[in-house]
Amino acid sequence: MVNTEVLVVGGGPAGVLSALTAAKNGHSVILVDAKSYTEIGNKTCGDAINLGPLKLLDKELGIQLPHGEEVAESVESLVFQTERVTFPLSGPGFVLNRHPYGQRLLKIAVESGVEVRADTKAIRAIVDETGVKGAIVQEKGSKESYEIHAFITIDCSGRNYQIRKTIPTELFPNLEKKMEKRDVAASYREIIRLKEDHPYDNKILLIYDSIIPEPGYFWIFSKGKKRLNIGIGWYLDMSVEKGMKELFREVLHKYYPQGTYEVEDKGGYTIPTRYPLMNAVAPGFIAAGDSAFHVNPFSAEGHGPALSAGYYAGKISSEALKVKDASEQQLWGYNTAVMKDFGLSHTKLQLFTEALRKVKTPGLEYLFKRNILTQDQFMALHSGKGLGKSEIFKIILKGFPRYDLLLNLYKIAKGIQKFNRLFDRYPSTPQEFPDWENEFLLIMNNIRNW
Ligand SMILES: Cc1cc2nc3c(=O)[nH]c(=O)nc-3n(C[C@H](O)[C@H](O)[C@H](O)COP(=O)(O)OP(=O)(O)OC[C@H]3O[C@@H](n4cnc5c(N)ncnc54)[C@H](O)[C@@H]3O)c2cc1C
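^ inputs. structure came back:
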């Protein structure tokens, strides 16, 4: 048996940030990852990241923005595109080379005092009626497992959510255990090298093509003048006749026919893509990153939120260690920080995802082509600001006779207002959470099942 103050399971962005933040505050931290040390940080990904979380790390922890070989492209705009309409939004960030960036973060963690146990898989949580006490882990190639006991255990195991799913619900009912098919996207991507320069400098494109089941999309992210990260993804509950790779190739060849590119790298994985866990703590436990549904449910960007959530998890853990209290109440500040940072905005973006499931790409094009929904109004909805009554009235007039589309727009606008009001009252104690969560679920399920 091994003892530590903080045990972090998973060395992706959420895990490394949790670990290094707690270690920088002077606490003993063990980070376990199933991967080998040199593979930590390497992940099949679209590689795009928004500037916001990177600035947070720079400001709070002095972690320099990605630079040198870590950056494949600087991004200025995010473009939503269908076959007929194009919507550019300002969106500064990067397309990264994730592996060197992840390895730099790991190095900072080690220099801050984190003990990394690579090739070590967490099997399940150690739990008693007072809380989570650590995890049972197993080294690669070994038949024996052993226990790591910790004051706080942070689950950053991504899609596996290995610790959260092994915590008995009956002991800590505020912590949700499910990960349903409709909340997980399957995704496949290739990095291709072109024979000629492409026209996508400094851009990332999300393309809604009618052969991809909505709200899934095809993406084109620039990684230098002749390189692109191109991928496809949709939700696991969608029934699709063709295989993902076949459909990928079909869409890719609309842009780059066979023979115009070489595949440098390929791979796929699943992404939990839903509004975040409304509560991600239990006594002695925090979940961060994909394991807590921290991926943007509209764009599927999860790298940035995982970094921010990891920082909050490490910070709240060290505050708890200082007062030797790992109760749900003491850790509750983590929920508040996540909700304030991206929790509310991701929840509102879930409305877009639901609407797109209903109106489909042709519906979206109808709204844009006829100028029923303007770019400013789209941005107001997308950023969660919502629309005023007079604007809604004008849209209704212009949208006649497509009341099905208008109803969906109306539900987004209404949902945004409701969530803004509800999150103003986000509970400050775990005791208030069940009633608040019931209100939340009533609104969310009503929207999801309309
Ligand atoms: C194809 C694809 C494209 C994507 N594109 C983008 C994009 O362009 N932009 C963006 O922001 N996000 C993108 N994402 C999402 C992004 O990759 C994730 O949201 C982000 O990596 C989440 O970080 P994390 O630390 O929570 O989990 P992960 O990065 O998944 O890290 C989890 C870590 O836990 C380890 N682990 C898992 N189980 C165990 C266990 N039992 N014991 C020990 N270790 C374990 C894993 O080895 C891994 O190192 C994409 C995802 C996919 C699959």
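The CA atoms of residues 35 and 156 lie 13 Å apart. The domain at 182-272 is CATH 3.30.9.10 (D-Amino Acid Oxidase; Chain A, domain 2).
thumbs up if we can close this ticket
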